[in-house]
Structure formats: structure tokens, C-alpha cells
Amino acid sequence: MPRFDLHTRAGLVLAVGLLAAGCSGGGSGSPLVPPATSTAPTTTTAPTTTTAQLGKYPLAELARQPCRALDERDLAALGITGLGREEATQYGTACHWLVGDQNVSLHPDVPLSYAQTMTEGGRTSQVPVGQRQAVQAEFQRICFVFVAVGGVDHLISATGIPEPGAPQEGACPAAASVVAAALTHLE
Q: Backbone dihedral region of 162: left (phi > 0), alpha (psi from -120 to 50 degrees) or beta?
């Protein structure tokens, strides 16, 4: 994959576009594309502890209820004790978890302009997240991870911030692991 510069709009559009076009989601081998909107209401029930099937949700539903992005199995695998806490942000609702000694907030649908702002001035790189590639930016002990789903108009973002006294090195792996788990729940 070509090298890119995330400090320019064109560079970020190119980088996220390449990530979206060149990566597949799930086991089907096809790119993850959000389902077309419909006027018919859809209802999805939350997964229960007795079901072995993975709960899958449209991106719009995860954007409204981001804590659904991790189920009980994900919480256990990531070492998260307790449920997520929803937080209102300027870009909708996010869900916050404590992953070890790292605070991670997941934003299931953020605009490209948010990614541009959060990556400006940071140390950026491409990193694997599940079966996809992500743009990762580190800036002042904070780590931002962005994964495109269905093009550059829909980015899933996670922000990792260490607890006081915790090492910064854990912020990016914690954020990336939350995004990777969340991607498994997208329809």
C-alpha cells in the first residue's frame, strides 16, 4: 500500500479510501457496506447469554446505541468488567469502557472532518484492526484509531487515553482491540 500523508485532506481521503477499498470485512471476503436505508422500521433484539450467534447490527443502530458494539464475550475477552457508559459527543453518542488501565471511547459513525482534526499534528501510521487496516494517530498521550466502513463518509473511531500513571503504550492496542471487536458486530 502506498505511503500517505494524513496532514492534508487529500492524504486522509486517499488513506481512508484505500483502507475502505482494499480491506474486507467479516468472513465473506466482500467489503463492509452499510445497508441501504429503508422507510420500513427494523427491529433487532439484543443478543442473550444463551445464544451462540454473534449479534449483528446496522451501522446506524450502533451509532444510536454504541454500547451494543461489544457483547458479553467481547467484554470478557478484552478484560472489561462492567458495561459500557454512553456519552453524548458533538458527533452523536459514544460508548466508554475501561480496558485494563486504558479509557477507550468508541464512536461508531464519525465524519471525515473529525478524523482530519484528530490526526493533525499526531504521529500517524497504518495498523491492522481485525481483518482491516486502520489509520492510527498518537498525540499527547492519546491514541485515535479510524477505520472506514462503506467509504470515507463512515468512520468508526476509538480513542484511547491512559489512566493517570498508566503507560501510554497501552492506549493504541486497547483502542484497536475495541474497534476490532466492534467491527465483528456490523451487518
A: beta
